């Protein structure tokens, strides 16, 4: 158990540091520290998502009895992935910190000047995501490894597959970060994000209730009244933030597909940035791809 935990504790931060160093040192890239941190964090999240989804598919496809059948990969991957959620809290904060430091970003003028104030601002803004990660470590981990007593590996595998939506979420964040909302890739990825998030996260628990209803030979609408109350409570608490994040994705998709033509209209000459009017020289375009004004928020978190 400790060996697997140690492996996860080394793998995810190590992959982050390796990716960041490569992005900074490869001659063809030479990215700044902030750019390398942001993209590396998204890369690690996507790698973890692919690993979790693959493990989930292997587990679910090998369980004929959805309650009694077991697979060694279930507890093993849970132990391996727990350090990821601890690491990711730090990685998300570093992304937030460097995003505020980037010249020309819409929030740069209000950026906290000290790490402590930035941490407070980060916890306030990303409270739900941080809480989600803390619950995964302090509640879901012991429940999945110890409380289940080896039962329901199929359900655990299906829940791993919820991560299938994460790579498209991460790619969407990167494209927005570097002002690529006008590209075909962003539109295709947005549609893919909407579909995968809805299937893998919003429909997750209704599907699990449906599968259990078939297994127990009871109608779907009777499943919530048949399973233990704590199962319903856990499902509700896990599903609530998914619905909230899905609503954000829908709002972002609506802005993307209905407001793109409006956002691409050329600005009139009188709409020049205030800094340009003041000193007579245009602000240089930052090398990291930011424009001087951001008009579209991130669609969702991962």
UniProtKB/TrEMBL annotation:
The signal peptide here is: 1-17
Please indicate which superkingdom the organism of origin belongs to. Eukaryota
The record gives the membrane topology as: Multi-pass membrane protein
Asked if the keyword Transmembrane belongs to this entry, the reply reads yes
Domain TLC span(s) in chain numbering: 34-258
Compartments it resides in:
Membrane
For molecular function, the Gene Ontology terms on record are:
sphingosine N-acyltransferase activity
What name is this protein filed under?
A: TLC domain containing 3Bb
User: What phylogenetic lineage does the species belong to?
Assistant: Eukaryota, Metazoa, Chordata, Craniata, Vertebrata
């Amino acid at each position: 158990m400790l060996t697997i935990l140690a492996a996860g504790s080394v793998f995810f931060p190590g992959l982050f540091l390796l990716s960041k160093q490569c992005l900074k040192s490869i001659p063809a890239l030479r990215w700044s520290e902030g750019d390398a941190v942001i993209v590396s964090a998204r890369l690690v999240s996507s790698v973890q998502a692919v690993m979790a989804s693959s493990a989930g598919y292997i587990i679910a496809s090998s369980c004929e009895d959805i309650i009694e059948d077991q697979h060694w990969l279930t507890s093993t991957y849970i132990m391996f992935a727990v350090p990821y959620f601890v690491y990711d809290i730090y990685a998300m904060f570093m992304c937030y910190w460097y995003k505020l430091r980037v010249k020309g970003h819409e929030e740069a003028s209000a950026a906290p000047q000290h790490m402590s104030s930035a941490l407070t601002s980060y916890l306030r803004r990303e409270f739900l995501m941080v809480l989600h990660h803390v619950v995964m470590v302090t509640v879901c981990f012991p429940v999945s490894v110890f409380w289940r007593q080896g039962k329901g590996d199929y359900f655990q595998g299906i829940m791993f597959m919820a991560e299938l939506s994460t790579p498209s979420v991460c790619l969407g964040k990167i494209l927005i970060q570097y002002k690529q909302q006008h590209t075909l890739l962003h539109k295709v990825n947005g549609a893919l994000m909407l579909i995968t998030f809805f299937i893998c996260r919003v429909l997750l628990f209704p599907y699990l209730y449906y599968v259990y209803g078939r297994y127990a030979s009871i109608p779907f609408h009777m499943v919530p009244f048949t399973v233990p109350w704590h199962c319903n409570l856990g499902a509700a608490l896990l599903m609530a933030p998914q619905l909230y994040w899905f609503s954000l994705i829908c709002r972002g998709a609506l802005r993307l597909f209905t407001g793109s033509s409006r956002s691409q209209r050329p600005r009139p000459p009188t709409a020049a940035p205030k800094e340009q009017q003041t000193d007579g020289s245009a602000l240089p375009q930052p090398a990291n791809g930011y424009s001087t004004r951001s008009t579209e928020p991130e669609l969702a978190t991962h």
